[in-house]
Every structure is written in C-alpha cells, then in structure tokens.
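Q: Give me a protein?
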Amino acid sequence: MRLHRLEVSAFGPYRAREIVDFDALGADGLFLLHGDTGAGKTTLLDAVAFALFGSVPGARGEVKRLRCDLAGADDPTEVALELTVQGQRIRLVRSPEYQRPKRRGDGTTTQPAKASLSWLDGAPAGHSPDGLIRIDEVGRTVERLLGMNAAQFFQVVLLPQGEFAKFLRADTSERERLLEKLFGTRRFADVEAWFRDLRVERKRELERRRGERREWLARFAQVAGEDPPEADVSTWVADVRHRAEQAVTEAEVARTAAVSARETAEQELAGRRIAAERVQRVRAAHQRLASLAAGEAERSRWADEVAAARRADTVIGAVTQADRLAAQLEQARRTEELRVRELAATGYAETGADIVELRRHAGKLREEAGALAGLVAEADQQHRDRRELARLGETAARERSRAEVLSEKLAGIPEQVRELRLRLDAATEAEVKLEALRERKTELVAAVRDAATLPEAERALAKAGEDLRQAHEQHLQAREYRLRLRELRLDGMAAELAAGLADGAACPVCGSEAHPALARPAGEQVDRAREAAAEEAENRAESRRKAAETARHAAETRLAALRERLRGRTGEELNAELAALKEQLVRLAGLAGAKAKLASKVQAMDEEAGDFAEQRRSAEQAATAAETQRHALAELVAERARRLDEARGEHSDVGARREYLVRLVRAIDTLVEARSACASVREGLDQQRAAVREALARVDFATVEAMRAAVRDEKTVARLEKQLSEAAAEEAAAVATLAEPELAGVSPDDDVDVASAVEAAKSARERAEAAAATLRAASTRSDELTGLTRRLETVGRELAPAEEAFAELDALTDVVNGRGQNARKMSLRSYVLAARLEEVAVAATARLRKMSQGRYSFVHSDAAGAHGTRGGLGLDVLDDYSGRIRPAKTLSGGESFLASLSLALGLADVVAAETGGALLDTLFVDEGFGTLDAETLDVVMNILDELRAGGRVVGLVSHVEELRQRIPTRLRVRKSRVGSTVEMTA
C-alpha cells in the first residue's frame, strides 16, 4: 500500500482545503511532519485513517467531532485520499455526519455521512467502473484490499503516540485485548465458549439423569415402605422384591380358604330365607282377605257414588252454560244503563229511542263533524300565524335598532386606525435602526475590553523579550559547556578504555591480551554520565528557549491585534460613546418592542370595521324582510278569522264544536252496541234453560240442585274407581297365593331363624373380602416393585456412560479454559496469543538490540501469573549489562521509546505476515523522539533508514528540532486564528 495524495477541507483545525503530496514527500523514502503543539500534525494521520475506514484511532475516535469549528456554513467537511493497493490506484472521498445551519429559517440540520470509491486505473473484474458510493460497500472493499481491519491498520501503519509504551507496560488482560484485535483470535474464544456451553448442557443432562434415578429410587422406597440404604442398593432392591413375592403366595392360600367358607355360609342363608319368605307370603294372604271382608259395605257406597257422578256429568255442562249466560245478561243490563247515563250527560234527549233511530241520528252527526275537520286545521294554523306576526314585528324592531348601533361604531373607527398606523410606522423605523446599533454596541464592548487589556499586553511583551534574552544566553552557555565536555572526553577516551582493561582480557581495540603501556589521564577526565548530564541540561535550556520564543511571538501577535482593533481610540472615548449608544438602544428597543402589538391592533381594527359593516347590512336586510312578511301574513289572518267565526257556532272555537260532535257520536254508538248485546244474551239464555230441563229428565234428576249434589270432580271419581279395582285385585291375588303348590302345608304360625344365618354369612363374606383385598394389595405392590426395578436398572445403565463422558468433557473444558490440569493456567486463546506474542518478541528484539547497541532484548514468558492467575502474555527485557531479566516498567523514558518503537515495528511485521495483507509501502511514526540523546537518535535513524529500503516510505511526526536538520524533506503545519495550513519544504 502506497499513499499518493491527501486532501482535507473543514476537517479538524484545517478550515480551507489543504493538499499533501505524499509522492513528493516520500521521494527520498523518509520525510518529517512537524509544527507547533496543537497545530494539527496528528490530524493529518487521522484524515488518512478516516478516508480509509471512516473512523480515527485512539481516544479521538470516541469524540466523533471532526468538523472544523471555523468552517463556514457552506464549507463541506471532506477528506480525499489517493493510494495504490494491490496494483489498483483508487481515490477515496469521505464526509462525516455533522450539523450545519439551515439554508432557510433558523436552527441547524444534520448533514449525513457520505463515502465514495473511484477506480483511477480501471475497475478490476467484478466491479462497476463507476465505483462505489455506499458506505458499507466502500468499507468492505477497503478492508479486502488492505487485508486488515481498522484496529490492525492503526497499530501496523499509524504507530500512535504512547500506544506501544502503554502496551509495553500493560498487564496480561490489557495486552490480551490488543492482541485479540490484531490477530483475530475470536474463533479460539468461540471454541472456549463452545466447550463451556457444551459442559453446561451435558451437566444439565447428567443432573437430569441423576435426578431421574433418584426419583425412581424414591418411588421404589415409597412403594416398599422402607428407606433405601446408603450403599448396596441393588441387594436391598432384590430382597424387597423377594419378600413381596412371598407375601403374594401366602395371600393366595388365605383367600382360597376364606372363599370356600363364604360359599357354605351363603348356601345355608339362602335356604333359610326361602322358608321364611313362604311363611310370610301365607300370613300376608290371610291378613289381606280379612281386611277386604271388613270394608265390603264402604266399597258398595263408593260404587253408587261413582254411578251418580257419571250421570251428572252429562248435564253439568248445559247447566254451567246457562249460569254463564245469566251472568252475561246481568252485566249487559248494567252496561246499557251506564251508556244511557253517559248519553244523557251530553245533553241528548232521545235516549229511549230504538236502535235504528239512534244509528240514523249518529250518522248525521258524524257527517257534520267530518265537515269541520278542515276548519280545525285552519284554526291551528291561525294560532301559529298570529304568533308569527308578533315575532316578525319584534324582529324588525330589533334589527333596526342593531343597525343604528353598528352605524355609530363604524363612524369612530377610521380615526383610531389612523393613529395606530402612525405609531406602527414609528416602531418599524426604530426596529430597522436597532439592528445596526446592536452590532455597533458589540464592537464598542469589545473595543472597551481591548483598551483595558492594552497596558497588560505591553508589559507582557516586554517581559517575554527579557525572558527570551535570558533563555537564549542560558542555551548558548549550556551548548558551549556540552561541546567542551565532549572534546575533553574524546581527548581522554584512550585512558577511559585503558581503565577497563585487565591482565589476560582481550583489548576491544587491538585484541591483544597483553597491555604493556596503559594510557594515563592527561588533564580533566570526563565520563559518559557527566557528558549525558550536560546534554540533558542543554536540551532543557533549548526547550526553555523555544518556549520563550513562542511566548514572545504570542505576545507580539496579541499586542498588534489589540492596537489594530483600537485604531488610536482611548478607553474614555470608547466608554462615552458606549454609554450614549446604550441610551439610544433602550429608547429604540421600547419603540420596536411595541411593533408586533401595534400591527396586531391595526389588523384587528380593519377586521372589526369590515365585520361591523357586514353586520349592519345584514341587520337592515333582516328588518326589511321581516316587515314585508308581516304585512302579507296579516291579510291572510284576517280572512281566515272571518270563516272560523261562522263555523264555531255557540262553541268557543271550531275545534271545540267538532270535539263535542265526535263525543256525542261515540256515546250514541256505545249505547247502540250495549242494547244490541243485551238483546242477544237474553235470547241465548232462554234457549239454554229449555235445554237444561230436557237433560235433567233424561238422567233421572228431579231438580238442578239434586244434580249438583251428585257432581264429583274427575280426580275423586278416578280415586274411587281405583280403590274399587285395587280391592278386587287384592282379593284375587290373595286367593291365588294360597292356591300355589309350594305353599301347601305351610302354616301362617310357622317360625324360621334367619338372623343367625345372616350373621354367619356376613362374617364369612367379610373374611373373604379381607383376604381378597390382602391378595390385591400384595399383587399390586409386587407388580409395582417389579416395574420400578426394571426402570431403575435401565436408568442405571444409561447413567454410567453419561457420567464417564461428562468427567472427560469437564476435565477437557478446564484445560481449554486455563484451569484444572492446565499447569500454566493458559486458555486456548491465551496460548495462541502467546505464540503470536513470542513471534512479535523475536521480530522486535532484532531491532531493539540495534537501537540499544546490543544491550536489551525482549523476553517472552508463558509462566502463570501471581496467585494462580492466567499467564502466557508476559513480556520483559533482558539487560546484557547485568545479565538479568528486568520488567519493562523499569526502563527510562528514552529506553521505553526505543522498546516501544521496536515492539511496534515487530508487531507490524508479524501482523502483516499473519493477515496476508497488502505490501505496506508507507509507515508513520508519531512522536517520542524528544526523549532520545543524539547518539541513540543516530541509531534509531539508521533503523528507520533500513525500513525505507526497497521503496518503503517512512513518515515521522515530531517537533524535535534536530530531526529538521537530519531530514531534508519536511511538511510543516502552521497554526493561526483562521485555521491550520500545511507547506512542504526541502
């Protein structure tokens, strides 16, 4: 993978569009990205990461705030990256999601994220030549081409600030999380989880089988009525079954004897019951015959009573009908008298007329009432029309009055509207002036504040100049002192080497084991520690000088900006102008604040005038219409009143007269109906009485009263006939019983003992039932125990292999998850990661030994942690000076940087080989060089020179001054109030 061109716009601190040409920067294989702290060096690396994966590394990616704060409303936030990967040159363009001001109205709207991928050298097979525009498709294509995901890319290509120093000092769990992201060992974690889940599932199944066996054993013990022993359950089960079978055999013998005794007793009881039953039948027959002889007279009387009742039944219907007609006749007479009185009450005099005359007169009156029906409806309408006349008069008067009131209101509205419009024009003019005055106030407030801070800025500039002069002098002194010590040490280097020689030991210069003339110190002796202290003092002095330069530049910039904004005005002048402006703002704000209310009032007055005019027109039209309707209706009412007065006669109105006629017709009709009914009932009664006399003569009854005395209801007759029939049947049955052959010789005085036989049979039956119940219980118990025994044997056979299989799975799961027989306490995933870390340690050691001039090497440890915790990811350093293994936390700052850089480069090589990713032709190293001395920096630069061999490009991100002198090609980032910019120098 090689980067060619990067473009950023409104991204991070970069407001305008900035372009980075990596082809020009990487022409020599090594370039430097430098600038002030916070200028945006790392942001360029974030832009590369964002263009590739849509995210940025480290904690910055968690904030998700990528848009430049200084960007304009219409400036799009965008990153474009051109690169070549696997022979394909592509262009990636991405925009994050951000908030921008709405183009219409107030507030903000969300600008959605976008991404596109274009093929610059032609699309490969299987891809559209138009490229990709979906975010997910772009992400998948980039990962496939690079052969690694975002986490791996951030660790392999963008070696970030402090990340590998943290990894170097991390504990096992933190180191494990990072390695998991890089090497994709999730599948081994899935294997561990699969074993754990399988163990839980198999244990649940085993517990179910054990529980099933315990349940069957408990049921066996419940049926046996005994508690199972702790051991030798099988022997106990067999013994219980044997005893149950013996109990069944003994119960069968007892039941056979009891059944035989029961049968003998039941035969004896049956014989005695038959004899007793025959004696009882003879006694009952004699007793019944005697009873029937005693009731012979009463049964004769019952027969006569039944015969008379049957004769009376033939006449009672006619008599009852005659009685009913007599009652109806009496009721008809009372009704006729009532109807006569009702007709007389109406004033009708001819109540004694016959039916024909009454009907003729009623027809005449009905015709007269019918003729008045139409006039009754006109009378009702007359009442309604008179009420309508009154209502129309009131409506006309009311609407005329309302029209006059509305005319008075309309007369005063134009003057009010004119006054409101004048006030509204004044408020509008004040609102226009107010906006300009507020902007002027903001400028004056800022100018007053600037005038107050001007003396302080002048003093700060003077102090910054003095601090810079002192810092520059101290830096020169420290540099001269370090150079003098370097010269003295070089002069005494032979004496320093001679001090380390011993007899018999080879000289590191010539290799001789004989040292005849050892060099002696010739003046002041300077050792490496003293020289390193001088270098450190020079570096501190240089840092103070740079800080002083930055502070003076900032003070100059601040003072120039203040003077430019003040333009020679004093604080007193600005305060006076601001006070006058505030008074004017208060006055105009009061006028402008009333604009909305005045506009609303003007609109309301206009609408009110229109409403009043419309209401007045409506009122005048309603009054005219009411008067017109009233005149027309008055003429109609007068004409109708004349006709109604002629028709009502002596009554109050036509309706009253018609109601009287209708009531009189109804009274005559009811009287006619009553007289007709009375005549009809009288005729029927005479006929029925003649029929009754004939019927009495036929059934031999002298009078109706004699016939009524013989009448009996059907229930009584049926009862008497049933009693007579039952008596005859009982007599015949008793005679037939005594004539039976089996009762010959049986006397009603014989006595048979049945009670003793009953007791004997009951006792024998109870003994037989008890024996049968005992046998059933024993058989049931034996059968249940047999079935439960078979079930226990089946469950036991299934449980044994399940327990063996679970024990094996349990031990294997513990080993895979780093417990149990796993002596190193390493899980499968940790074991794989330990192997990868060992490869990383080997690759990193090759570079660390060069950077540390052969002193340090990485040592991987797979030992278990303290207190039995998981191990396998230990990483220490071997110090060849002492020959001991040291924790990485004991390294100094510069040594930690060397170790971290070596570890990062080694990890990059291993990850690239592991993932099979594209060739990584571009590599970035972000910061850390400030902790190195000049000699170590030389070694590190040599290592980086090796990295760019074969066409690889290495980019360094640092603000160390010495790197500017060593690396000719540089990209400088400048920071200003309007956003950062980049420029390339060579």
Observations:
- The mean pLDDT is 76.
